[in-house]
Amino acid sequence: MQKPQPFIVHEWGTFLAIAGSNGVTLEGMSHEEHPLPDFVHAAKADSVFPKWPTLKGETPVIYFYTDKPRKVLVGVDFPSGAWTHWFPSAASAGRFSGSAPNTNGHLGWITQLAPPSPTDSLPELAADSLWRFARQVPAAATVTSNGEVERFLFYRGLGKANLPVELFPEKNAGRLVAHVPVQRVILLNIEQGKLTWRPVIALKAGQILDGVRTGLRPGSVEEIALYLTRGLIQSGLFPDEARALVNTWRSSYFEHDGFRVLFILPQAWTDRFIPLHVRPQPDQLVRVMVGRIEGLTKKREALVRAALLGFASNPEKHFATLAAQGRYLEPILRRLAQTPSLKPLCERFLATELVTKGRSDARALAEQLRLGV
């Protein structure tokens, strides 16, 4: 008789924040960088989304490995935030009754697992969808009560919380403070497409690292991606899972201008921050999350400030600077609004579609501002 295979559950994802030049985590980290497939379920923004979140939990995906069909109950909590997107359909979604608004988020699935099969009927994807990378893992199919099928459980959320690592972009040429042990730290700067970086194998809890914006050397995307992939495997992910994470976030991590820090968080932190419950209990449970902090330097602040002040006189010239900030434009504007003389102007820009919907052009933005939007 063949020995039963263990029941294994693996998970990966990213938590993202942006640190102002003064090291304070900025609000407004809620926008998407890449569109999710149309079939993904979304909560109503006006009912559960935290107001001006400081943390974005992106693409946690949960894989299951089983050699036989089995029914599984899965629940994931977010004590300091709310879950905003998920797939397949959840049996329960929202927050625990009696909790404060926009906190104690919860998702629950009742799903049937089946060993992977090439005949799995998965929702269709656009050819360029980043979702396809997560599917390139031969995990069990997950089937919910309404017949939705995928090779994993996906969810995403927003929180009013801080990562356990602090970044002070301007202090001592950049200071990093680790409050928990982290692995495979990547210090990365991209400016006009030129990439420089420095790896730090590990930081202990309580360790302070100064000069994080200095000593960076030229590197390639392939080199940095391999460094991170190896760290993800050492943290417990299967090689194809690690590649799925890196390929999903490759352009966002390694190809967009800006100064950022990446690091692998300990599972003990993840278990406390977003508790996961699986029944029946798996023989192995591995959760690997990448922390990501975008560092707002004074140089970048000054660039956006100049674009704001000069926009009225030359919209075409300064629109490109504002649009290039992408989903980080709102946090940057909220940082600049801390200067009283800039607050009214920042508030007008915050109300435009360039910020609220991530789309506009120079002419439309100028018109919205003239109308006092």
Radius of gyration: 21 Å
Strand order of the largest sheet: 2-5-10-3-1-19-17-13-14-16
**Helical fraction:** 25-40%
Which oligomeric state applies? single chain
> Ends: how far apart?
71 Å
Main sheet characteristics? 10 strands, mixed
Order of helices and strands: EEHEEEEEHEEEEEEEEEHHEHEEHHHHHH
Let me know the number of strands: 19
Q: What fraction of residues sit in β-strands?
A: 25-35%
Task: Give the tally of structural domains.
Answer: 3
* SSE class: alpha+beta
SSE inventory with pairings:
Elements: E1 8-19, E2 41-42, H1 45-48, E3 55-65, E4 70-78, E5 81-87, E6 92-95, E7 105-114, H2 131-135, E8 141-144, E9 149-150, E10 153-159, E11 165-168, E12 175-178, E13 182-191, E14 194-203, E15 208-210, E16 217-218, H3 221-234, H4 239-254, E17 258-265, H5 267-273, E18 276-279, E19 284-295, H6 298-310, H7 315-323, H8 329-336, H9 343-350, H10 353-356, H11 362-370
Helix pairs in contact: 3-4, 6-7, 7-11, 8-9
